[in-house]
Specification:
26% helix; six-stranded antiparallel sheet; alpha+beta; OSBP_sf; elongated
Length: 149
């Protein structure tokens, strides 16, 4: 399931807003799970940029740095696409999909990163530590619960 669309989060005390755009994408597209956005004050002045993947991590970076990176990335993507078109004319091979990790823009601050799976996660239906604790039977409750639970 892929999230896409816009989300607006408002700080009711200060009037500041976080505007996030969950990018739509096909299964193997470049923008799979990508989220980008801005923090703006009540006068709608953009204070900083946010970017990352909602399944992995979220970073904050100065707005000017983010805008410069976007321009550079767009130029590189256009050059790469023009090279791929000429290369695909010569070959019938399927292109290898790009890496699914986030490129960290220099000067960024990590805001959030997904916690690693616990070591025994595979034996426990790939549950997170939180989900495993929810299913843990407390020793005091064990005598009171039916054997089926």
């Amino acid at each position: 399931m892929e999230q896409y669309g816009n989300v607006e989060i408002t700080n009711r005390k200060t009037g500041d807003k976080c505007l996030l755009n969950f990018k739509p994408c096909g299964l193997f597209g470049k923008e799979f799970h990508v989220v980008e956005g801005y923090i703006q004050d009540k006068s709608k002045k953009k204070l900083c940029a946010l970017y990352g993947k909602w399944t992995e991590c979220l970073y904050s970076v100065d707005l000017a740095i983010f805008v410069a990176y976007q321009k550079k990335d767009k130029k590189n993507t256009e050059e790469k696409n023009s090279k791929q078109v000429s290369a695909s004319e010569e070959s019938d091979e399927m292109p290898v999909p790009e890496s699914q990790s986030v490129f960290v823009i220099p000067g960024s601050v990590l805001l959030w990163r997904i916690a690693p799976q616990p070591p025994n996660s595979a034996q426990m239906y790939n549950f997170t530590s939180f989900a495993m604790v929810l299913n843990e039977v407390d020793k005091e409750m064990e005598s009171m619960l039916p054997k089926t639970d």
